[in-house]
Amino acid sequence: MDELRPQDPARIGVWQILARLGAGGMGQVYLGRSPGGRLVAVKVIRDEISDHPESMARFRREAATMEAVRSPYAAQLIEASLDASPYWLATEYVPGPTLRDAVIANGPFPPESALRLFAALAEGLATVHVHEVTHRDLKPQNVILAPQGPQLIDFGIARGLEQTLLTQVGMAPGTPGYAAPEVLLRNEVGPAADIFALGATIAFASTGRPPYGGGEASAVSYRTVHEDIDLEGVRDDLAALIRRCVAKDPADRPELGAVIAGCAVDSALAADAHYRSVARDAEAVPEHVSAAEPEPEPEAEPEPEPVHATPPAEPARWGYDDETTPYAAPDRQPTPAPRPRRRKGWLAVCALGLVVPLGLWLLPGQGDDKDTEAGATGATTSGPTAKNGPKEDAKGDAKDDAKDEPPQGPPDHIVNDRVSQARWTLSDDPVQASQGIGTCDLDSLADSSPPRTMQSSVSHTTGSGTASLSFRPENSGKGKRPAPYYVSLGVRPPHETDRSTGRPLKSTGKGIGFTSKPVDLYSKWSSGGTIKFRYPDDFQAHFGARTVDAIPVSDDPGDWTVVLYHVEGGPTKYTSIVCSGFHA
């Protein structure tokens, strides 16, 4: 809890603002007091994202979900203002530390205390599921350890049970390390995904370590899908129950009633000595804090902590919290893991430095098979950075493999003749945003799909005018070359392009942006399969007879969208396949 700053409001609605409780990707959370003296938590959406459709949809969804869910394990919605800026919602104030903060400050829960917490959280999820709602983002920082028992918070991405299968590309919810494999691979979210997150959360509470290690979100997701959870040192009976909850196949996970029975608790969690000691860590409301008299000077902002892809060599005892921020850990130093395959639309790009992430676009129309496991470790290489790497010329690449090209080729270009709903946005989670992680909505899918998986890389150096883009079919060069499948990359700036000058306008980008010359996806089959492009050099926008050269990335700061199009015939016959992007 922090004192107010001069720029903070003195009052929101009827609530007098007393202090700052914290901040998240969506906005600031304040401690408020009603005229009658009731304390509330007031979440105010940030001005800069209040006009973002997805952010507002999430905020409204959180308010609607909290209004629908009536549970002793969830903070109750008291009031909301969703019609005009500033947008806010007020919930009952729940004193207590988050589970994440409690474990970092006090160490892991003893086994019996962890089992009692396990049972209480399972019961809490069950009361949420009764209302036909899945939480979708259960993790240690979304659990408050209140004196009477744990409280679930942050229902911003919760959905009704009838919406368990997401069909839009780039919309997988959750946090790496706690999101279930089916969420990461197939965007499939249901009650079983909440049970997986429950098991991962109790693993963190029992070990003090992130359940699938630290590092890049991509590496954590890879381990979640393909490796075992970290339960070293956990008592056998507790470890066995956690493993059941985090089974890779959702059908193998127990029902919440079975989880509660498996915990076999014989006393209240609120009476547990360890729980009582950590739940008391909540800060008292400072009596001197007044909304009418904020401090005259704002507090100095702390220097940002560096986010490491792998832990530094010293000190030896180093760990990561559940969202990859370094902290001093008691026991274990996570080891680097291979970069994972990523689903379509969830592709990390460099936001702060020269990092070239490699993802795996999961292409539409295909299911899982044994090839998934066989090819998983192949997604471990990366290309040159946008700043230091050699310029890659798509035409030159095609020439190198001229012998592989079929006699008939694609059109010379595709025409920017339509409105595209595909849009990549940087995550509103501060930690994920610091790593350049975002999500992408895709408006349509190609009818004829290429292979199920494809490695891809998109990189951009903050402040530069360039980006490097590459992709290759998985298992390229193995077996017979597939039939030609023509694709073009579209790179769309945040704002629309003036067709006469080529400069960005104030309006939001709606077309397909600047596109590459179409190439055969398999044109590099015999030499490894990687097709590379350099933006802006290899891109133009084609408006009928008018052609406009691509603008430098630095000319239009914001969220850039990258879409791979299947070119099915002439310049106007193409369909979007997968979507990613980067923030400039």
Q: How would you describe what is shown here?
A:
The chain starts with 10 loop residues before the first strand and ends with a strand. Strands 1-2-3-4-6-5 form a 6-stranded antiparallel beta sheet, covered by helices on one side. Strands 18, 21, 22, 26 and 27 form a 5-stranded antiparallel beta sheet that branches. The chain is built from 12 helices and 27 strands. About 23% of the residues have low confidence. By secondary structure, it is of the alpha+beta class. The longest helix is centred in the N-terminal third of the chain and has 19 residues.
Would you spell out the secondary-structure blueprint of this structure?
Elements: E1 11-12, E2 15-23, E3 27-33, E4 39-45, H1 53-68, E5 77-81, E6 88-92, H2 99-106, H3 111-129, E7 133-134, E8 143-146, E9 149-152, E10 159-160, H4 181-186, H5 191-207, H6 217-226, H7 236-245, H8 256-263, H9 273-279, E11 319-320, E12 326-327, E13 358-362, H10 370-374, H11 394-400, E14 423-426, H12 430-434, E15 438-441, E16 453-460, E17 467-473, E18 486-492, E19 495-497, E20 504-508, E21 514-515, E22 519-520, E23 531-535, E24 540-543, E25 546-549, E26 559-567, E27 574-583
Antiparallel strand pairs: 1-2, 2-3, 3-4, 4-6, 5-6, 7-10, 8-9, 11-12, 13-16, 14-15, 16-17, 17-23, 18-21, 18-22, 18-26, 19-20, 24-25, 26-27
